Amino acid sequence: MDATRTIACLVYPDVMSLDVTGPMQVFASANVERRRQGLPAHYELMLLGEQAGAVPTSAGFQLVADAQWSCIAPDAVDTMLIPGGAGVQVQQQNGPLLDWLRGAEPKFRRLGSVCSGALLLAEAGLLDGRKATTHWADLDALSEYGAIEVQGDRLHTYDPTSPEAAHLFTSAGVTAGIDLALALVEDDLGRALALSVAQRLVMFLRRPGGQTQFSPMLAAPTGTVARLAILLEWIPGHLSDDLSIEALAAQAHMTPRTLCRLFNQETGMGPGQYIERVRLEAARNLLLDAQASIATVARLTGFGHSENLRRSFQKHLSVSPRDFFQRFG
């Protein structure tokens, strides 16, 4: 087993508190689980700020930086995390911090961001030529850095099988930083220990890094045409019915052509795509609640056959229904 690893997290005025405390609690809980097993702590945790001392968060309370980032030897830090928050825009103009990140990056074993912290790494030029993600609300801002391959529909880009993605990585909005931290613990200490941490925190052990950031059923269009709004409310209760374009058009009392135009205009996707996403969301919920077998879930949600359900899960969630159920059900 390796020696104690130092996990450091940057703090700055108006940082998102959960971006800091969420991942750090995962590492702290890993230490607790090891002590329960009669083993020594594996992680040493520290917060780094412009100065040592109290730092105001966007939540209104303060965190305390243990030391100045400028006074820390980067090669003494195993994993450095860069959180996001309302104050990230100011830090994007912090020249000394950006210079420190550029110089320290090769010396860290791992350097990752949480939420909009990716914008700091991008401003430092560290994400050029790499795949990266961030909170869905900041994807456009990240896309302005043209040299980055932005992947908006995933939770994190950490991949222990890839030297590049195991060294420098990003995660999506807020709680995705906890998913990232669990992945790091699993890589460091094994799946069993990570599972113990997840159970203590009442969390999933691991949502795959490629899993979608948010539910399509939560992204309800605003200002939707009345007839289409009524149809969208009707669809979830009739997933096993005939939901062809012709059937939907008849239900909405409009022509198929008008229906397709309104769907694209109001939801950003065609009727077929929308129906598949709603069916997928319903299937996810059934599997999460362990209410039925995979074959029954496929039938109840209108996929018909479990193979159709499997293809949709792989396409949109990068995981099979069986694996999804085993991890989260």
UniProtKB/TrEMBL annotation:
GO molecular function terms attached to this record: DNA-binding transcription factor activity; sequence-specific DNA binding
Classification via Pfam families: DJ-1_PfpI (PF01965), HTH_18 (PF12833)
One biological process term in Gene Ontology: positive regulation of metabolic process
InterPro entries per UniProt: Class_I_gatase-like, DJ-1/PfpI, Homeodomain-like_sf, HTH_AraC, HTH_AraC-typ_CS, INH-QAR
Domain of life, per lineage: Bacteria
Keyword entries, A-Z: DNA-binding, Transcription, Transcription regulation
PROSITE patterns: HTH_ARAC_FAMILY_1 (PS00041), HTH_ARAC_FAMILY_2 (PS01124)
SMART domains the UniProt entry points to: HTH_ARAC
Residue span, HTH araC/xylS-type domain: 229-327
Identification of the protein by name: Helix-turn-helix domain-containing protein
